[in-house]
Design brief:
mainly alpha
Amino acid sequence: MLLPFLSVVMTSLAGQEEINEAGGFVLWAAEPTLNAYRAVLSGGVVTQAMIVSIGVTAVGTAVSLLSTIGLAYGLSRPGSLGHGLMLRVTLFTLFFTPGIIPMYLLVQHLGLIDQWAALILPVMVNAFNVIVMRSFFLDMPGELIEAAKIDGASEFATLVRIVLPLSRAVVAVVGLFYAVAYWNAFFTALLYIQSPEKWPLSLVLRTFVVDQTPIGADELSAGSTALPPQTAIQTAIIALSVIPVLVIYPFLQKHFRAGLLVGGVKG
């Protein structure tokens, strides 16, 4: 598992001669250099794409968490308005997803083509995450909810002051799921985003890996006498797209078991 990551990082730090000698991927860079990272972070298309990805991930995760928490809490309260119908609709979307063409026509009808909102709104709520969070809320002791009602707390106050402080584990796990999905958003960007300056990092990475003359080559070479090896640039972008998730994951790992097992296992 570690070998591919090591190879990507070492190749991004290697020079052209080392890459040629290793046949494309370097397992250990004898003379590491940061030229590839300097090139891609010099203020060109990759830097813009990273800013877009960070913004979409931050806003999308916040909006998705708020929507998922509200829907899951409503579905966990017996007798709430439209409880049975909304639960059936949520389960229906879990098993039957719309096709690519209907989704594209809907996004086009809403005027979201080539808008960053197209990366968030169509995938704002994930039914699986709603079910996991709802199960967690159902496992919460009913005495706490009843005590809050006796004290005169509204449903919103009960959710904010009692339920959410006891649900940090499942909120952290679901938030991580949403954040990783938004950070790695590729297909939705490929479908809905047309302007290159609005592309997220995953779509820019695709152009560097697939295209022979990747977008942003002029920006990368501007002000530089020699452009770093193409393979080093590709692996540097791959490393930049993977490292944020690897950095965040260890801080949320302790919540993973509690959030998934308590929220998803019954019996």
